[in-house]
Design a protein that fits this description.
about 250 residues; mainly alpha; globular
């Protein structure tokens, strides 16, 4: 999708080995590493726990911003909003029911994947925000490098598929075009505009949207904690964006 967009808009790809080196690092932390870790983690842990681990990404980002980004230091309101948002995610997922018999290796991989996102976005903010290249060119180049990285290591862990059934193949294309291509393109713009910590607040909406889609498309049962938790998530997101009134 991004290759087509770059071609239609006649965007120039980034120039210079230094920029491409930064993009390779970003591709590792934002694409190759977390995608692989989450895939392997969900072989041994439930998707509910993976969702909670994913929702810790803004909290990791807030902690890392304390030492990495002087212009993105969290205020009391943002800390409260991040905490409230995480509480909302736990409510949506019904975390009080407990997670017995969990695989610690899978949980560790999911948490490491969540940590890799803020590392990658902070790196992007520090190294690529003023590169002069467009957001579209940077995003397309980053995903290309992430594809190359995965292509190199994939033969070491698995073999080629026996076939390509139509519906799963179309699902992969849809996830790539929308869930990765368009999503990363929008995320680049958010990081440049509001900073990596605030931009990662979108992570809190992943379990909410997934639950809503499950009810609407898969007929899953909706319990009381889902809409209540969704409202808490929205309140936390609003709090992080609000500013104290000046007297």
């Amino acid at each position: 999708m991004l290759v087509a967009a770059i071609a239609v808009r006649r965007e120039r790809l980034p120039r210079g080995a230094r920029t491409w080196g930064h993009l390779a690092v970003a591709a590792f932390f934002l694409n190759a590493l977390p995608f692989s870790l989450f895939a392997y983690a969900e072989l041994s842990i439930p998707s509910t726990l993976a969702g909670i681990c994913n929702a810790t990404s803004p909290l990791w980002g807030m902690a890392l911003s304390l030492v990495a980004l002087s212009e993105d230091r969290p205020t009391r309101r943002r800390v409260a909003g991040l905490g409230l948002g995480f509480l909302g995610v736990l409510t949506v997922l019904g975390a009080w029911q407990g997670f017995s018999g969990l695989d610690f290796g899978g949980t560790a991989m999911a948490l490491l994947a969540s940590l890799s996102y803020p590392i990658g976005w902070i790196y992007v903010r520090r190294t690529l925000a003023g590169s002069g290249s467009s957001t579209l060119a940077l995003t397309g180049s980053q995903l290309f490098l992430g594809t190359v990285q995965l292509a190199v290591v994939t033969p070491l862990f698995t073999s080629a598929p026996d076939g390509f059934p139509l519906l799963p193949t179309l699902a992969v294309f849809a996830l790539g075009a929308l869930g990765t291509g368009l999503a990363v393109l929008l995320q680049y713009g958010l990081v440049e505009e509001v900073g990596p910590t605030t931009a990662q607040m979108v992570t809190y909406f992943i379990p909410v949207i997934a639950t809503a889609a499950g009810v609407a498309l898969l007929g899953e049962r909706l319990s009381w904690n889902t809409p209540v938790g969704a409202l808490v998530v929205l309140a936390g997101a609003a709090l992080t964006q609000s500013r104290a009134r000046s007297r």
